[in-house]
Batch of 2 targets.
Target 1
Amino acid sequence: MLETPLRDMATLREMRILLVDDEPLNVALLDALLGDEGFTQVRSITDSRKVVAVCSEFVPDLILLDLMMPHLDGFAVMQRLAVLREPDEFMPIMVLTADITESTKKRALSAGATDFLTKPFDRTEAVLRISNLLRTRRMHVAIAAQNEQLEQKVSERTAKLEETLVELRATQQQVVQRERLSALGAMVTGIAHDFNNSLALILGYGELLQRECRRLSGSRDLTDYAQTIITAALDAAGTVSRLREFHRPSDEGGAQVPVSLSQLAEQSVAFTRPRWEAESHARGLPIEIHTECMATPPISGQAAELREMLTNLIFNAVDAMPQGGTITLRTYEGIDSVVLEVTDTGVGMTEEVRRRCLEPFFTTKGARGSGLGLAMVYGTVQRHRGEVEIESKPGRGTTFQFTFPIDTSGEQAVDTPDVAAPKPLRILVVDDQPVLCEVLAESLTRDWHTVEVATNGREALEKFEAGEFDLVITDKAMPEMNGDQLAAAVKVRRPEVKVVMLTGFGEFEEGEEIESEFIDFLLPKPATMVEVRNAIGRVMGAAIGITA
Ligand code: ADP
Ligand code: MG
């Protein structure tokens, strides 16, 4: 802060000086002196008891203080001013003295005096000392202002750092969660595979047992027992199948087509209406669902899967609003993406629940919940190369925000054709597990189909070449010649023969291509007879491409 001497003096003369002396003559003298020297802001008082009040209003830069005064002497005044002063503030006090003793000087210094001016005043000395004190005061004020600025900057930086730290923690949490989910996914795939094979047997024999019971004994009890076995196995298969939704490579579910999230959101509201309207009436509390859907560009995906995802989210939101409330489905275009938000005004989640809610089997609903809804949602998001973020606070509702990349093909989605009714067929069933083969063959035979079985690819091909078939149902994983190779061999010989392939869970590696040209339908194991019939209906009814 470099100043010319002229400017320096000019600013000093604008600083505030307070004059305290009980002797009016002294006051007049000093007042005149300061006025002559160009000081414009001078205030004087003769009653020292007013110093504190004047200081808080006038805020002097320098006090010229007499020591010997009635009522309140200079020492008492300094004591009171010391209380008023900020800890780091430099408030110069120049004591006006006649001739005083050394000990009085010391006492004045320790009471807070900065300098002395001896009466009668030498004009030049007085102006010099006053100017010096004012200059020092001015520097202190400037430094204090600078310090304040620095402190402000430091606290801004600290706030920013804290913000970054919070963001970092959130990202770290996300990474940890992603890792945990992917480890769980791997485990789930393994378990699902083994469970499925067992369930296929239980289901198959359950169905056979039931038919035999009906045919032979006609016993209601036995038929019901068998039905219980079938129902339990189907339930378990359903759980396994939903679990599998949580971790299924994107290429296993069939082709992805351009779909409109906005349209799906509207459809899902209509689709779930019976449930939330029923809940709403049952509780006598209103549940409202709003959609705020923009005309968004299509994303690449599977309509059925996305609809299922939305259904899950809506049901969760309904569950979270025991007192009623509002659910809002919102879609809009983001940066190269379509954003979908599902917001409810429900009970919200604690931080712990929010972090774990995507995990399979995580539920806070006890026996009422399966904990698979959001795991399935997560799987769907993954397969659609999307991202999910959850914002929730207890008592403040929840928002699920999804971001999906925009589809780049520029095509329109096509509806799946209807299922055609089955007619008697010549079918070759191939599975390296004779039991499974047998179960399937028996059931198909009862549906009036003609069935031959083979327990390996080579045997199957021999039988295929020797006979006449409309359809081959084959397992995928078999030693020597696997299902894919068999399908290829079949299609080379007789392209019009349909091939349905049964796959256990996890038999598709991520990124593996499905041999779509040789396979007409993929059927996940364990398939119930209803599913097998549907599959047959579809491949025989219409020449549709690969789907699952
Ligand atoms: P389920 O609904 O069977 O419990 P989900 O996987 O669908 O399983 O959900 C897991 C858990 O996440 C729920 O039990 C609940 O605690 C929490 N949750 C999910 N959606 C919401 C929501 N909209 N509001 C509050 N909590 C929710
Ligand atoms: Mg749920």
Target 2
Amino acid sequence: MTTMAPHTDAASAAPFVEKTPLERYVAPEKPSLVGVTRAQLAALLGAVGVPEAQRKMRVQQLWHWIYFRGFTEFDQMTSLSKELRATLAENFTLARPEVVAEQISVDGTRKWLLRLPGEVQDKGIGERPHEVECVYIPDTERGTLCVSSQVGCTLTCSFCHTGTQRFVRNLTADEIVGQVMVARDRLGDWPGGTRPSDGVIPTGDRCVTNVVMMGMGEPLYNLDAVRDALLIVADGEGLTISKRRITLSTSGVVPNIERAGAEIGCMLAVSLHAVRDELRNELVPLNRKYPIAQLLEACRNYPGVSNAKRITFEYVMLKGINDSIEDAKSLVRLLKGIPAKINLIPFNPWPGSKYECSDWEQIEKFSQVVFDAGYASPVRTPRGRDILAACGQLKSATEKLSARERMALRAMAMTD
Ligand code: SAH
Ligand code: SF4
């Protein structure tokens, strides 16, 4: 049963409590080769009888077909013998997560609801699938894919819709890579592919140019899978999205920040949102475990950090909560000496949220202080608000329970 950190007035004094997972991963009967590392692929080929001397070459060939060409059938892979193609088809698939819904915003943002293997068993309620959302944000010259790392989130940030959802499970590396594959499939973003005729598509030769781990979940609580997946996404012979165009956003899992830098080497974004521990304890309860000073120390030591590779600090603008000019001044003082960018994010409301977005005038004043301190301070324009695809609005249908179901769950929680 889900256990959640209480959000009471005394919450900042309360210990930090994480939600526990509801379900474990249930592997599909036939594994997909999408999202396995090169070493794992070689081992899987060995298991179906490919002689060791051939494995390296076969891995190269498969890698090209899977990630460069985007093929979904082994039969299309003409450099492999018919026999090997048949063996592969017998034992594996090239499946991606199943798209169960697609929504396109008036601004061209696309949101896909993806169904993953496994079912949540809620006593008395029945089964519901594991689902996550993945969002594509096109611009004139770039297309950013916002990827999820968990079904739900163990954390309970008070302004985030995902935080209200139960934590179901971590995604596997293939499910994370699978989101990039699905997006490229849907956008015809493979050599010779046909682009959609509706919506906004960037002008260059690629639709997905950037990846941000800013969907559902806390990527640093699923670091091994996120690492394996991002190294596949960045691989120069496959999906080739450079590490400078991949950003991992964390709410501040301090012990894993260094590992992320050393093992992945992508860009880092930190969800700061408050300049005082007292307030951050409320907004980002993980702060009770890893307070601001520890978090900023980890940022100072992030492997590879430099003026050319700055850390992005995200700051959600909450009316009357964290948006004063004093806060802006403290923010720039706090970040002194850290190669940083500051991203001010207008709060995206969701049904039942208890905050309001700061007034535009206040955001401009706040941003002026940040700008005067020498930071370019772009205010991130909310995208896809009409389809609840903007930051912090993601919440999969797994969680869309009826009032009756919710009551039943609460009743069970009390009797457990
Ligand atoms: N768990 C990670 C990554 C996913 S959230 C993290 O917290 O960093 C991606 C970003 O959206 C984070 O900066 C998060 O704080 C922000 N966010 C969450 N809810 C939001 C909301 N309702 N409006 C605006 N930004 C939000
Ligand atoms: Fe989880 Fe990030 Fe939402 Fe916090 S902001 S609840 S860490 S997804």
